[in-house]
Amino acid sequence: TQLLEQSPQFLSIQEGENLTVYCNSSSVFSSLQWYRQEPGEGPVLLVTVVTGGEVKKLKRLTFQFGDARKDSSLHITAAQPGDTGLYLCAGAPARRPNDYKLSFGAGTTVTVRA
Amino acid sequence: NAGVTQTPKFQVLKTGQSMTLQCAQDMNHNSMYWYRQDPGMGLRLIYYSASEGTTDKGEVPNGYNVSRLNKREFSLRLESAAPSQTSVYFCASSVLRGHTSSGNTIYFGEGSWLTVV
């Protein structure tokens, strides 16, 4: 059983549309990270959210950490083909905030069609 | 601007064979990690090294050994490969031990595709 559940598993949209990816857990996290992974490459960190209710924006990407620090979402506005990739959320349970045993979700594969 | 470098990129092994995956980072990071990635399961931590001279088990250490050779290098060894070890392996590094400190970034290598037949 994954500590972090991501949904949907796959998402295919047309260029210019918006999309939201969810990362949920029954556990509380001290912070959550979002990564993007392109085929044949390793994951690259996009953002870290640390405060419940926090919203961070990275150009057309908006990240939100839930008030209870159990969930997070990634919203992409006006998606472009360059946004195609595997989006992974990751975090460490709040009871061990500096634990190296970071848990990863299974990921959401996003395809943006031109 | 190498970052984290892994070798080999691709490898096919027969069941029972041994091999070592090499990893080196040029960012003067203290901590290094080995993950495996399998379809539908995300990344799972195999072993971790907080600093030179120390190693710790992660979620899925069985069948693997590691060596932190120096601050730059962290190798992963499969002593007797099994088909269940077919996976993509990622080496990673970070400045700090804690993953969740704001601003602490984990840098991943490009991955090593291992098939055990």
Largest sheet geometry of chain A: 6 strands, mixed
Note the gap between the termini of chain B. 35 Å
Using only CA atoms, what is the Rg of chain B?
13 Å
Helix content of chain A: under 10%
Q: What is the N-to-C succession of helices and strands of chain A?
A: EEEEEEEEEEE
Tally of DSSP helical segments of chain A? 0
Number of helices of chain B: 0
SSE-based structural type of chain A: mainly beta
Largest sheet entry of chain B: 7 strands, mixed
Low-pLDDT segments of chain A: none
Which spans of chain B of ≥5 residues are poorly predicted at pLDDT below 50? none
Rg of chain A is 14 Å
Brief characterization of the structure:
The complex is a heterodimer of chains A (114) and B (117). By secondary structure, chain A is mainly β. Chain A is 0% helix and 54% strand.
Question: Could you characterize the architecture of this molecule?
Answer:
- The complex is a heterodimer of chains A (114) and B (117).
- Chain A is mainly beta.
- Helix content of chain A is 0%, strand content 54%.
- Chain A is built from no helices and eleven strands.
- In chain A, the strands form two sheets. In chain A, strands 2, 4, 5, 9, 10 and 11 form a six-stranded mixed sheet that branches.
- In chain A, strand 6 and strand 7 form a beta hairpin.
- Chain B has strands at 4-7, 10-13, 19-25, 31-38, 42-49, 56-57, 64-68, 74-78, 87-94, 107-108, 112-116.
- In chain B, strands 2, 4, 5, 6, 9, 10 and 11 form a seven-stranded mixed sheet that branches.
- Helix content of chain B is 0%, strand content 50%.
- The chains are: A mainly beta (114), B mainly beta (117).
- Chain A binds chain B through residues 2, 4, 9, 29-31, 33, 40-45, 48, 50, 88, 90-92, 97-107, and chain B through 4, 31, 33, 40-45, 48, 50, 56, 58-59, 90, 92, 97-111.
